[in-house]
Amino acid sequence: MSALHRAKAAGKNNYHIFSSNLNISTYKQYELERDLRKAIKNNQLLLYFQPRVDTNTRRMISAEALIRWEHPTWGIVSPAEFLPIAEEVGLINEIGDWVFQNVCEYLETWKKEGLKLVPISINFIAQRFLRSDCIPMIVNTLKKHKVDTSLIELEITETSIIHHEKEVESILTQLDEIGINVALDDFGTGYSSLAHIKDFTIGTIKLDKSFVQQIAIKPDVEIIIKSIIFMAKGLNMNVVAEGVETLEQYEFLKQQECTEIQGYIFSKPVPEADFLKFLKTPILKPQVNYLADGMQERRAFYRLQLVFPLKADMTITTFKGNSVTLGKTEIAIDNIGPGGLKFYSTIHLPVRHDIIYEFETVIMGKEVKIQGQIVWKDEQLDGVYQYGVSFIINEKDRQDLIKLLNNFSLKLKNNVLVQDTNFAHEDPLSYIKKINQVS
Ligand code: C2E
Ligand code: CA
Ligand code: CA
Q: Is 185 in the pocket of ligand 1 (CB under 6 A)?
């Protein structure tokens, strides 16, 4: 953080930032922090919607509103990236109210268009929830847009309940009285028991995706899921399983009579235009190929697919036409050829031709330093991204690279870990998760 503030002070009236204390992700963070205040005013915030589907009928019976920020440089920024900044700079409540208001506006518009509505669930942070103007804000906004309370559900996290029990209980009771359902988000991550929660007026629990994703992998987690669903049913609560990605997980949850399914298997969160299609045709089909990457460009050169990835340092040398000096960030190269490479990183970067990157690695004792631009990207699970890079390289350097890669390719046939080469000793996804401490 301090590097960020120093750079900010130094770069106050100056577009450029020259600091090798800043790497690409702190630089991005700096820009996001600088621009967030303007984002609301400039209409850069938007809502995506993700269907929640009845397990048996596959009918969309509600949907969750999820916020996005369309940043002019960095593209779509995820809430996991900018909400912590919003909290830090004191914009979190304003953004929360923006979400609530926009959901109500959408519901009003859809109703006018004659669509059959489903309840929309809205994420609320404890801090907003506990403010005295919370209920009045909700009531007034619903009234203004003529939205019935049954069309809104609030999601609060399990952990926020644990920390403020008494206050939360009273607000939950008031919400219950005006007819607003509350769902307990990320259930299972906060170690609270259903026995404890039954005293709160909560209609729905959302089983955290970290549980769902252990189905068919960890038998003991399956037993926990079974008992949560069983007990919730006894207490008259709905159970929504979050993060359902595979048919196997879906079948298991169906067998356990889990009420609702939310996850990529039915749909990723989508912008309004796509969501309208679901409202019009609400029976959804499980998608099994959503992970297939179809974005690879047509290539003029071959690529060398590596068994073990190359560790490399990456930096940005040109940012929107201006040269910059930033620190290095470690990435993993999965394939490389004379025309470009593919790498893995946890940083979410935009596909833009006016940002030029530099990559540095060592192949057979030779330091390789090449520049290029990102031409496609694809999201792996758990916040790891894959990027396709096209090199910006002169003909002579290209010929040298071809020679080196030809030699490298011959050596790789005898030994996948060619000597004096900057290999990581695991697959690129595990390696990137490890160095960034992603679980
Ligand atoms: P959450 O409330 O737990 O939302 C579910 C997250 O899981 C979403 O991430 C969604 O895109 C993702 N997801 C859904 N299905 C799958 C799946 O099958 N597999 C995987 N791997 N992920 C899946 P998203 O949209 O990036 O939001 C992240 C978090 O940001 C949310 O977690 C929520 O805590 C917060 N958030 C999003 N929108 C808002 C908002 O309007 N207000 C507040 N306060 N928080 C928000
Ligand atoms: Ca949620
Ligand atoms: Ca959740």
A: yes
Whether 50 lines ligand 1, by a CB cut-off of 6 Å, is: yes
Residue reference for tokens 């120093």: 6
Q: Which atom of ligand 1 is nearest to the CA of 245?
A: 18
CATH number of the domain where residue 138 is located? 3.20.20.450
Q: Which of 252, 280, 308 is the last residue of a domain?
A: 280
Whole-number Å distance between alpha carbons of 83 and 65 = 15
Instruction: Tell me whether residue 29 is in a domain.
Output: no
Q: Is residue 312 over pLDDT 80? A: yes
| Contact in structure between 392 and 357 (CB atoms under 8 Å) | no
Question: Does the pLDDT of residue 339 top 90, yes or no?
Answer: yes
Ligand 1 atom nearest the C-alpha of 262 is: 15
User: Is residue 243 within 6 Å of ligand 1 at its C-beta?
Assistant: yes
End residue of a domain, out of 250, 280, 310:
280
In a domain? residue 152:
yes
Phi then psi for residue 281, to 5 deg, are -125, 85
Host domain of residue 214 = 43-280
pLDDT, tens only, 211-239: 999 998 999 999 999 999 999 999 999 99
Taking the model in full, what pTM does it have?
Answer: 0.84
Q: Is 383 in the pocket of ligand 1 (CB under 6 A)?
A: no
Closest ligand 1 atom to Cα of 79: 30
Helix-strand-coil percent breakdown of the chain, rounded to 5? 40, 30, 35
62/51 Cα distance (integer angstroms):
6
Does the beta carbon of 78 sit less than 6 angstroms from any atom of ligand 1? yes
Whether 92 and 227 map to the same domain: the answer is: yes
Whether 16 is covered by a domain: the verdict is no
Give the Å distance between the CA of 207 and the centre of ligand 3: 8
Question: Angle at CA 204, nearest 5°, toward 277 and 54?
Answer: 35
